[in-house]
Amino acid sequence: MKFLVTLSLAALAAATPVVVTKKDVSDPVVGLAVVEKRQRTGTTAKEFSQGGCRDNIFVFSRGSTEIGNMVCFLTPSTLLHFLLLFLISTLLSPYPFPSSHTKPARHTPQDIRAYPTTTLSGNRPRLTRPQLQGTICGPQTSDGLKAALGDDAVATEGVDYDAALATNFLDGGANLAGIAIMTDIINQAASDCPNSSVLVGGYSQGAAMVHRVVESLDPAVQDQIAGVITFGDTQNAQDDGQINGFDADKLLVICNTGDAVCDGTLNILPAHLDYTRRADEAVEFLVGKVQSAAAKSKSKRA
Predict the structure, then answer these.
(1) 102 by DSSP, 3-state: which?
(2) Catalytic residue at 162?
(3) By the 8 A CB rule, do 57 and 191 touch?
(4) What is the DSSP string of 38-85?
(5) Domain boundaries, given as residue ranges, for the chain
(6) Class of residue 94 by CB neighbours under 10 A (exposed 0-12, middle 13-18, buried 19+)
(7) pLDDT digits (tens, 9 = 90+) for 18-61
(8) Residue from 143, 160, 197, 272 carrying the catalytic annotation
(9) Residues 89, 197, 204, 216: which is the catalytic one?
(10) Rounded Cα distance, 173 and 181, in Å
(11) Which burial class, exposed, middle or buried, applies to 70 when counting CB atoms under 10 A from its CB (0-12, 13-18, 19+)?
(12) Which secondary-structure segment (H or E) carries 282?
């Protein structure tokens, strides 16, 4: 009951109009309006699949039920889905939420590809499908990268997966078909664009996908990843704030104070809906990692 009340209040807060007389961009609602005016990246991003290589390739995966594939907040329309998920999880187990002390088994590429899906074509994702990326964190992070590095220097690619709520309860916390799609995108970027820096990000279930994908990549592909960021990371506690087998220096986990999913549960509290304002941190981190990778590459050539 406490979960239902908390979730209802969170959805009500997200749905209630906010009237302001002064544009305070620190406020998430007002900040969104300001962001939209300067936005370069829309809800659909397929710059890599349609345009090919650029100096930097940014791959982002959205959270559960979100429009597009780069969203970082939950809309009121998701309330019914969460209520149903809560009821289902309660019926299935007296402990419906993942334990923060239990590490999920790592998925091998073979495990991932055994999952039945109609979204795959051979060993490649159908990159001709709209690569939707949502409205807030993903596009804002992409916009920040483009502002810092140049529009033509960043190719943003969203991950087209179902983003259903129930797949949060799978071992590893994410949609297996989505993991396969994201894995293929990153592998393709590394193979087709050996001189590009790959940047990876995700929110909520999308963050869990980042964990499962990056930990399964070949070391050579991991080396080509300059930086990884996650928002509202549902696997933060389970994986001890890191990605198994990946350089911790190249990872930034962004978790709001009071966001229970970062503590190993799936309780959706208001803090989980408030990551718009944290996108600048992700941009600063990723730009720094791109610059470090460029300096390292230049040093090797000298």
Answers:
(1) coil
(2) no
(3) no
(4) T--S-SB-BHHHHH---SEEEEEE--TT-SSS---S--GGGHHHHHHH
(5) 2-301
(6) exposed
(7) 332 233 333 433 333 334 444 566 667 899 999 999 999 999 99
(8) 272
(9) 204
(10) 16
(11) buried
(12) helix 279-301
* Parallel, antiparallel or unpaired: strands 56-61 and 154-158: parallel
pLDDT tens digit sequence for 108-156: 333 333 322 222 333 333 333 334 444 458 889 999 999 999 999 999 9
Residues in the chain: 302
| Spatial contact of 60 and 210, defined as CB atoms under 8 Å apart | no
Spatial contact of 205 and 258, defined as CB atoms under 8 Å apart: no
259 noted as active-site residue: yes
Residue 225: both structure tokens together: 């990843």
Distance CA 178, CA 157 (A): 14
Structure tokens at 112: 């991932």
CB count in 10 Å sphere of residue 188 = 18
The Cα diameter of the chain in Å comes to 63
Q: What is the spatial distance between Cα 124 and Cα 185, in angstroms, rounded to a whole number?
A: 8
Domain 2-301 top-level CATH class: alpha beta
Give CA–CA dist 227/290, Å, rounded.
Answer: 7
As given in the structure block, the two tokens for residue 58 are 């940014």
Determine the distance from the C-alpha atom of residue 238 to the mean position of all C-alpha atoms in its chain, rounded to a whole number. 17
Between CA 62 and CA 39 the distance in angstroms is: 18
Residue 26 a catalytic site member? no
Query: What is the spatial distance between Cα 272 and Cα 287, in angstroms, rounded to a whole number?
Result: 25
Residues 120, 123, 124: CA angle, nearest 5 degrees: 60
- Count Cβ atoms below 10 Å from residue 203 Cβ, excluding itself: 35
For residue 271, count CB atoms less than 10 angstroms from its CB and return exposed for 0-12, middle for 13-18, buried for 19 or more: middle
Task: Please check whether residue 158 is in contact with residue 138, taking contact to mean a CB–CB distance below 8 angstroms.
Answer: yes
